[in-house]
Fold:
Amino acid sequence: MDSVSPALKINDKRKTQSMNKFFLQALQEVINGKQITRVSWPNGETVLLHNGFLSIKKEGGMHTLLVSESDLKGADWIVVDTVN
Structure:
């Protein structure tokens, strides 16, 4: 069974490439309008630009993302597509 939330789908274009990205690579995707997440995060948590701020969308709503050292050094960022 697919472990990806029904509301999120890994970007199919990335399947043939390395799916994991470093934070700065993933951040470029956010600048281009995509949403990103970390493999280690719970399903449904994504990072995006919201009202001009880097934000994390969680079950409880939208929050400004405070980037940690672990986030900066992490190489497990992936691009997600939202399914409407």
Summary: Confidence is low (pLDDT under 50) at residues 1-7, 11-18. Helices lie at 23-31, 69-73. Residues 55 and 64 are 4 Å apart (CA to CA). Strands lie at 8-10, 35-38, 46-50, 53-58, 61-64, 77-82.
